[in-house]
Amino acid sequence: YKQIDKLKNEISEAIGYETLPRNYLLKVESIKDKYPQIFDWLNLMDMNVIVILILMLAVSGFNMIAGLIILILDRTQMIGILKSLGASDSSIRKIFLMQSTRLIIKGLFYGNLIGIGLCLLQYHFRLLQLDPASYYVNYVPVYLHAGYILLLNVGAAAVTFFMLIIPSHIISRLNPAETIKFA
């Protein structure tokens, strides 16, 4: 529907405003001109999808940050021992980032399994029905595109991973003598 205005202008230029017999005026009018509220609603739905994805990404990112901080605080004794044995802050940070990356991948796998499974159920069995008088469709339509799913997963993993880099610097502040003493 993104080319409606372009096509309307092309047709309008081709025929212009003509007067037919009995003084009827011939003019070009697109469906966007006739029913603008439907297209406003479609644009609003696109905006809702973007807002929901951003909120979901923010919530998952903050959950991963909290998880990493808990992981670090839970393993302070191990961090102290590794530091006292000569491990550098960056190598310890890499260990925790790798553990977090495994958690991200595991979460994406199970999330995709559940999400795509529910979408396939809706696609094949149309479990979620709608009132056609209000929505112009009988059921909730589902469109699965592998490229979109892959792009969403890569984007979510990348953003969450980059959000974890900052809290991983907590490791450099830990004093080996005090962390071993706390155990």
Task: Provide key terms for this protein.
single chain; 183 residues; mainly alpha; 2 domains; two-stranded antiparallel sheet; 9 helices; 2 strands; elongated
Q: What's the quick description here?
A:
By secondary structure, the protein is mainly α. It has 2 domains: 1-53, no CATH class; 60-183, no CATH class. It has helices at 4-15, 31-34, 36-74, 76-84, 89-125, 132-135, 146-165, 170-173, 176-182, and strands at 18-20, 24-26.
Structure characterization notes:
By secondary structure, the protein is mostly helical. Helix content is 74%, strand content 3%. The protein contains 9 helices and 2 strands, in the order H-E-E-H-H-H-H-H-H-H-H. The chain has helices at 4-15, 31-34, 36-74, 76-84, 89-125, 132-135, 146-165, 170-173, 176-182, and strands at 18-20, 24-26. A two-stranded antiparallel ribbon has the order 1-2. It starts with a helix and ends with a helix. The model has no long low-confidence stretch (mean pLDDT 87).
Report how far apart the termini are.
Answer: 64 Å
Largest sheet report:
2 strands, antiparallel
Shape: elongated
Number of domains: 2
User: Structural class of the helix and strand makeup?
Assistant: mainly alpha
Radius of gyration: 28 Å
Runs in which pLDDT lies below 50 for 5 or more consecutive residues are none
- Helix fraction bin: over 70%
Can you count the beta strands? Answer: 2
Oligomer: single chain
* Estimated share of beta-strand residues: under 5%
Strand order in the largest sheet: 1-2
- Order of helix and strand elements from N to C terminus: HEEHHHHHHHH
**Average pLDDT for all residues:** 87
Count of runs of 4 or more consecutive helical residues: 9
